Amino acid sequence: MWEEEIGGTGKKEERSGETEGTPEKTSVSDYRAESGRTGHTDARDERQYSAWESRYQRQPSPEPDNRTPWEEAPYRSRRRKRSGPLFLIIAVLLIVGISVFIRYSLVNGTPWQPYGSLPSLPFVTSPSSGQQEETTGQTTVERAPVGDGTTLTISSPPGKALTIQDVYREVSPSVVSIMGTLPDATAYGTGIIMSADGYVITNYHVIEGSSAVTVTLQDDEEFDAKLVGGDAQTDLAVLKIDSENLPAAKFGDSGALVVGDSVYAIGNPLGVELKGTLTDGIISAINRDIYVDGRTMTLLQTNAALNSGNSGGPLINVYGQIIGINTIKMSSYSSTIEGLGFAIPISSAKPIIDELIAKGYISGRSAIGITVSDLSDTAAAFYKNVRGAYVESVDTRSNAYKAGMRQGDIITVVNGVEIQSVDDLYAAKEDCGVGDTISVTVYRNGKYLDFEIVLMDASDLS
């Protein structure tokens, strides 16, 4: 029931069964009849009817809907038919996206780093691609002859320091650009001419995984380089180009450095477009232990600006002598970090370089024969929260392959030690030598498998 006062008569109409709608009055006469008034229509009636008509505007009643509940209007049916393919496409794209994301997470939970870049710590666990390679088998650059008796010579400093301009004029001709050809990318770095007959020193991570390497001199002359030898553990490599009378660099004693000594860096930050860039700074620390890829490297720390592309370039003293090989920069994705660069002391690099030139490899380095990476939290959840080192690849020549280890395995235990990361794996086998047997447990397809693996000499897999 609802009541509504009509016009100015004071009379109220009661309507039953209606909750909304319009009173059924279509003329002034109808209005007069209901209100009890008779006789002629006067101006008052006209005014009251007009007021009523404006308040109750007659609306046409909608056509009755005789469709059954499960029937839809034709236009709605057509919309559903058009949207079906769209939903299917979205579903397919979503599945593909999830698959790609899981695959990326399996490889590494850390952000991507460009090949050949100066590695950043502590957030990037590998110098090049985020993967940690235990063998050097993927580098297929043509090999150069070894054993010609060439060695790196370290000289005492001359009596007089040079100006920064003189340092640049003397050293920059000995600094070269390095370009490595990778399966799906190009690596850029810096190198140092060690001898007039074409030996060039650089970081191993600059040429790691390359099938060919090009060396470009300061005057833009290019050479196809051959690989004399490389060592991933010390991040050093020696190349050879076919040339004579090259401007060889001079090398100084890094052991004579003290904190506060002025130093300079020359290199190709961010690529060849900025080649020959000079930066300066000081020695910030000596014998700084930096944990890299499961091993400790003892390095020189400097605040001279180093960036991607400086890898393998020289750190120079005030006498124009090379006293370090730039290799690592500290950076963060969540905050700004500047002035934290690191270089391999030339005094500790010399025996490695000499052995690479003599034999092409460093002997006595034990290897499992696998490439591994850390599992991200997302990937660990995908594997029911299994933690360990994810096996990216297994060298088919290795004892690990012969024992049954395969790509996709997750190493969880080595010699009874639980493995949570790649660093744990390196630490677990750190004291094991060539020929030692290690016990390895892996997770594969919901099961745990045990292997006994005899460690090999890394040189046998290079």
Automatic annotation (TrEMBL):
| InterPro entries attached to this UniProt entry | Chloro_Bact_Ser_Proteases (IPR051201), PDZ (IPR001478), PDZ_sf (IPR036034), Peptidase_S1_PA (IPR009003), Peptidase_S1C (IPR001940)
This chain's source organism reads Papillibacter cinnamivorans DSM 12816
Q: Which residues form the signal peptide?
A: none
- Which is one GO molecular function term here? serine-type endopeptidase activity
PDZ domain: residues covered: 363-446
Q: Which residues cross the membrane?
A: 86-106
Q: SMART domains this protein is in?
A: PDZ
List the biased-composition ranges (Low complexity).
Answer: 130-140
Going by the UniProt record, its keywords in alphabetical order are:
Hydrolase, Membrane, Protease, Transmembrane, Transmembrane helix
For this entry, the protein name equals Serine protease Do
Q: Which GO terms describe its biological process?
A: proteolysis
UniProt keyword ATP-binding present: no
Gene3D superfamilies per UniProt: 2.30.42.10, 2.40.10.120
Q: Where is the composition biased (Basic and acidic residues)?
A: 31-48, 64-75
Q: According to its UniProt record, what is one Pfam family this protein matches?
A: PDZ_2
Keyword Transmembrane helix part of the UniProt annotation: yes
What domain of life does the native source organism fall in?
A: Bacteria
Q: Where is this region: Disordered?
A: 1-77, 125-150
